[in-house]
Fold each of these.
Amino acid sequence: MPGAVFRRGDRVTLRTVERADAEFVQRGHNHPAVGVSLGLDRPENESSAADRIDSVEDDPNVATFVVCLEDGTGGDGDSESGPTPIGKVTVKNLHHTRPELSYWIHPEYQGEGYGTEATEVAVDYVFSAHEVRGLQAQAFAPNDGSVGVLENLGFTHEGTLRDARFRDGEYVDVVWYGLLREEWEDDGDDGEADGTGGGR
Amino acid sequence: MPGPILEVGDEADDLVLRTVEREDAAFLQRLFADPYGRQALHETSHKSEAEVEEFVEEQVEDDSNAAYFACVDDEDAPFDHPDEDETEVVAFVYASHVDRDRPRLLLWVPEEHRGDGHAVPALELTLRGLFRTYDAHTVGAEVLEGESYVRKAFEAAGFTDEGRGREVRFADGGYQDAVQYGLLREEWDERTGGL
């Protein structure tokens, strides 16, 4: 069960990651449509998912969130069960000039724009809370969903590393995207911290 | 001093690759004093000799990384452990995670040897060693805009400019773009005739 709400978008919230979320995180990481896209190449059991959550708690250079729908059902239709976790957003290397952003949405909830919305809220948070120069993100070139999030948010395609990773039975290109602070701030009112993403 | 010979260059180059030893930490400390050189290791500050010894023990000696000194040997330099006056280190080349994905290369030339023409042969000799030893499909490098001698060396060794991260790092008083270079094994084979 995710923790407190940290930031709100129109439809999604970013909540703190609790140890009890290990089961949800593990379910995402082991799903082929998520894990393969993230470059995870082996199974993750619940205890190692919990260990990862623990290790991030102690790392001041990482901010990580569970993306939730506030439908009060906990994802199982039970009206008393609280928020429904649908994905995860992580910012790492917050001490770098351009920290790195990563995200996934559980396949059941993909195609609704939740990834773009959650990532937008996270980008707003990073630029407002941290004195970073910009942000960056990488994706496997065939991963249209992930690349689409970056393009929706106005990231610039900065490079394509040819055949850089082996994934899903073949070598694939890795695309790099970057966003500088002024590009985010100049991007109009829809970049404000309320996280409304309608204009993008 | 550097250890045994790993690769021998063409006679024209007069270069050999030798191992990096723990006692070389004092020399390698200069890499971490170079505001550009250390960036390729994602380090932003200088290091004490003890910290560099730790780098040698934990990174250089890790089987997933490969470190090389390109040296110009004296005529009488032995194969194994040359004395100080028998060899001269002219470049340091370091490949990280040679066991997976795309190994990443670092090239550093001590300032007094820049312009001597050793950078490209040192890089090529390392590539020959890497592609012979590990089954990497591609190799890559990230080089800051301001480090032009290194960019030129990667370009001369056949790497392709695959993109540019804008203002990715702060070094030498300003935000610096980082150029991404990549080289595929098949491109290397084509270039060298598979040698």
Amino acid sequence: MSSSDIYRELILDYYRNPRNFGRLDPHDIDAKDSNPLCGDEIEIQIQVSKDGKMEEVHFLGKGCAISQASASMLTELAKGKPLEWTKDLSKEDILKMLGTSDLGPARIKCALLSMKVLKTGVYAYLGAKPEEATGSQDIDH
Amino acid sequence: MLRSESLRVDEIRKDFPILQREVHGKRLVYLDNAATTQRPKAVIDATVEYYSQHNANPHRGVHQLSLEATEAFEGARSKVASFINASTEETIFTRGATESLNLVRYGWGNSHVKTGDLIVLTMMEHHSNIVPWQLLAKQTGARIEFVGLTKEGKLDEDHFERLMGQSPSIVAFTHCSNVLGTINDAARLSARAKRAGAITVVDGAQSVPHMPTDVRAMGCDFLAFSGHKMLGPTGIGILYGRRAILEEMEPFQSGGDMIKQVHTTGATWNDLPYKFEAGTQDSAGAVGLGAAVDYLNSIGMKRVRDHEMALTAYALEQMSKFPGITVYGPMNAKDKGGVVSFNMGDIHPHDMASLLDEEGVAIRSGHHCAQPLMELLDVPAMSRASFYIYNSFDDIDALMQALSKARNVFCL
């Protein structure tokens, strides 16, 4: 897939009108990270319900269309799901969410940054070691 | 605007093997020269020839190959020294501009800078001319002031003048901004800093490859630059230092070749420039840099500058006609190097670089290792096109066409 194909209406809409954007107070989970190559920044805040579900999921951040749209779409996807759900979340799920099969090595990190942040936050909350949260090697940098 | 090329770009392009390749099925339009330039065949061949015919450890042996290697290595030094009008004793090989600046930080800074001293930098510095000084300040208790910029993206001369009144010990500034392209008057700034009692450190990474350089006329104490930004190999760079200062400086790295004598009780240092070249040097890289200097001399640095100025003027003109584009830095090509940084609408530079790449156009996107400048201008990132001798007006037309396409994709 060529890179201009990713910038479909859907991605641009989430980039320009991000859902679940802004602080969430109070919150139980707060995690953030950045991608030093392009300066993308994502922070995710989550309210956790008594039965361990992600009741509200918000994000803050700045960066390219792919990173911001991906974060916004992920908050929608995660909302209402149990915390454990994030453990099985994979690169393939994110690509499917974005409606693409591949992004190429330069841009995949933009797409996966929000997943990394979500996992880091949830794993820390669940008491797991943060390094387990990074999941796939594709998101190392 | 007149599209007259002062260089035979078609001929020059033939010398660069990489420019013959395609990217995503399109002609490669390489506009990321401020990051690194491409290498002509002459440079590649010179390195290969060194390894295939003359390789040995320079300065070490009396056998034939070592003599040939020494001759090649020192011959390269002579070429670079003449290129900037320095002596060979003042021309030190390093791994690049970054290491050159670190050499000054350790070699001069460690033994001269004291608590409360002032280090003056500018808001248009690359991280490589900020972070070493921040570490020096942290270590010594010195303080740092950054000279501000005018709205046009030039140095705020009044601010500079006020800071000179505070007797700084180091004044370090870029000769040409890697983001705004702004060319600073290195001779005037150096002279003023010197009157204030400071040593002057000039970052020439973006100027030496693109215009005639004369360290005597510039009057600076140090000038740092990299080989890979001027057609040479990666991993080789230069620090020019004024002889009197180099002589009284302590070594930076230590080990073989930088010593005169070593005893169990201590050591004495080798003569200049070897005092600052510890261990086996990147002699093949030096030879490649020498070949790059030959290549640039065969064109002539004034013509290089004129060519880039014509391209920059054309690019600025095209971009200012293009709706939604903001260009950063001086708008007169005479005031800047061949660097045009810009943003378009709400397209993030990283998205922009992806879309342009698809058209075979290579540009840089991001903070350009100048985060303080990004903060000052209140933009998270920029796209940057930067030119060199093998770029043509057609390349800029290709850039503009790709920008139109990006605008359509983002429905601007």
Amino acid sequence: MAVIPTTASGIAAAIASKQITAREVIDSYLAQISARETDIHAFNLVTADAARAHADAIDADIAAGRPIGPLAGVPVAIKDNLCTHGIETTCSSKILEGWKPPYDATVVSRLRDAGAIMVGKTNLDEFAMGSSTENSAFGPTRNPLDTSRVPGGSSGGSAAAVAAGFAPVSLGSDTGGSIRQPAAMCGVVGVKPTYGLVSRYGLCAYASSLDQVGPFATTVADAALITEAIAGHDAMDSTSIPQPAPALVASVSQGVAGMRIGRVTDLPAGAEPEVIARLNEAFAALEAAGATIVDVTLPSLSYALTAYYLIAPAEASSNLARYDGVRYGLRVNAVDTNSMYGATRAAGFGDEVKRRIMLGTYALSAGYYDAYYGKALKVRRLIAEDFERAYAQVDVILTPTSPVVAFPFGDKVDDPMAMYLCDIYTIPTNLAGHPAMSVPFGTGAHGMPVGIQVLAPALGEAPMFRVGGSLENAAGGVK
Amino acid sequence: MSPSGTPISAADVAKVARLARLDIDEASVVHFTEQLAKVMGHFSDIDALDLSGVGPMTQPFPLVNVLREDVEQLCLDTDEVLAAAPSSDQRRFRVPPIIGLDD
């Protein structure tokens, strides 16, 4: 049997040129899932039979000379907060266990239209609230590089699936770092696109002004390829930017000669020394590749955590009001509707979801609105203005993705504030609505991977991928 | 301490749980109050900022009203939607009584 390529672009090319069949590819990935999924628990559901049938259909199209999509035969794992028509979508919550959505998320239908084959729905922190995937109602996902450690979160299952070779690419969602942070902790590439570049239709809402769907991949070029496939205007999302998907793959190999890379001189402290060492090596590598390093300040950045943990729970408390036991999901029967709501939500939501709903309800309640939510919205403006000033001087900004490498299970699960601090470098991007990506760049403590984050201004995906591609090239030379 | 000057109390937590339609017992109220007080203690860092003259930012980009042509389109299949409901009756969602149960 032919060797199965490890990248999405390689697989698509090999299938299109009839070097291998889609069935051979999917069987190979399903075999890898069978071999390691028990140890990793990346998936809430593996859709093996449907995946094989889809692969056979693609092979039949190729044999008959019918046209195929640009991603024909590429296996893809989908975060379980993205709706899949007729296929269980749980958000890793008991309140949605067993729910089969009556429609597909736009990103899911776009990938299928391009010929990609879904292999399963990946585990997450319940409703994408968490930084370790320990908040899943169905048990945690383990880091494929060290199964005693977390994979990060909330898209831990999607990150682990790619790191474990269960799929060459996957989709996650990123509200405060939920793609980039697990990508960094699992040693893969993760991209959060500009707010509005990718449709949120069919993404179960957590914080609607922050949520964005994006890809995981083993290479920067694959991440660009999948971003191209899912981006572009969608009439079903009123915040969708009315522009076609940008061309991004070509940017990856363009190099950084002449680019201005921002170094944040007042970066919030707390990163492990090895993480800072890798960041400094990344700056040196980009400078050697022809970029200029420019110091910038982002004085409001240290307040981003407070702004985020008021705004996101406030939006969540409103969005999650829909889970009331009436139209879908769990219902705990009671004598009247009000008791039914309270009992259903108490039984269906886990502790972290309850904490954020209560926090958000408090921040929005009469007497506290101005002191909390109103103030947080003003801080959000300050952060956006900081970025605006910085991007007048530089093309992109480089920071660590996560202050820490993947940590052992149980380390932070009872200390919400310690867990929230994992997102300190990723949150500002979501508040501003900008794109950012994490690129693996050597290792830190305990030999675990370190991710370097590339931040860019709104719709700055092309320069972001240029820098990402150069970091990937340079990463081969670091420890 | 919070921006309002007082830490969140157990009574506050019990109240927001009620507002959010979350039944929680007394032990949970104590547990959540401790955790939320610690989280909200961190929030006092923004008290030092001068926010006068700063406008609130609710969205990354200004929202515009999006309208489409008023033409018939396919919608969700009623039977499929009702099949996912905990209870349905006569092609409607069935729920327990809303009023009339007071002693």
